[in-house]
Write a structure and sequence with these properties.
Largest sheet: 8 strands, antiparallel, barrel
Helix content: under 10%
Structural class: mainly beta
Number of strands: 13
Strand order of the largest sheet: 4-5-6-7-12-11-10-9
Number of domains: 2
Order of helices and strands: EEHEEEEEEEEEEE
Shape: globular
Amino acid sequence: MPVAEFRLRGKWGMSFDMFGWLKSLFGGEEPASPAREVTLTTLAPGDVVVHLDVTYMVEQRITYHQAGFFGFDYRLDDGGGNTAWLSVTDDDELELAFFRPTSFQPNLPPPRQFEHEGVAYELDEHGVVDAKIDRGTGTETRTRVEAWDYEGENGELLGIQRWGEGEIEVMLGRAVRPVELDLLPGDGQR
C-alpha cells in the first residue's frame, strides 16, 4: 500500500486514486518501507551490533522466560571466527553484559564461591528458565536451562549454563552500558 493515498470520490461513490494515476503517467517506484527500529530487546538474527569498534552480526537470539520475567542473549559473530554473547536483562532496570566463551568446565552443581584464573567469584543468582532459540531459519528450538551467575571482586562476570539434560556452556564477561553499543537493522540474512 502506498505511504500516502489520495482518493477523489465521484457522484456515484466511485473512487479515483490520484497518486496511482500520476505514477502511471510519470513512472516511479513504490517508496521504500522505513527501516525497522532495532533495540536491545528486539535484535534478531542478521542485525548488527558494534562494540568497542568491532562489528558483529547477530547469529541467534535466545529468549528466556521465568515467572513473567524475560531476558535475552544474542550470539554474535565478528566474521573472523570469534564468538561473543550480548546478554540483556530487564529486571527493574536494564542490565547488559558482554561475554566470551571459555574452556573452563566446573563440576556441577558448582560451589557458591570459587576461584578461576586468579579471580574470586561468588554466586549471584541460580535458577531454571525456559528458553526459546531463534537462529533466523524460520524454526525455533525450545528447551530448559539451568543457570548459575557469578560476580567477581572487580566486576568480572562468569556464567554457567546447563542446556536440557547435558551441554554445559561457561562464559566470562563484564557489564556494558547501552552507550557502548551501536545497533543496526540487518537484512534478516545471517
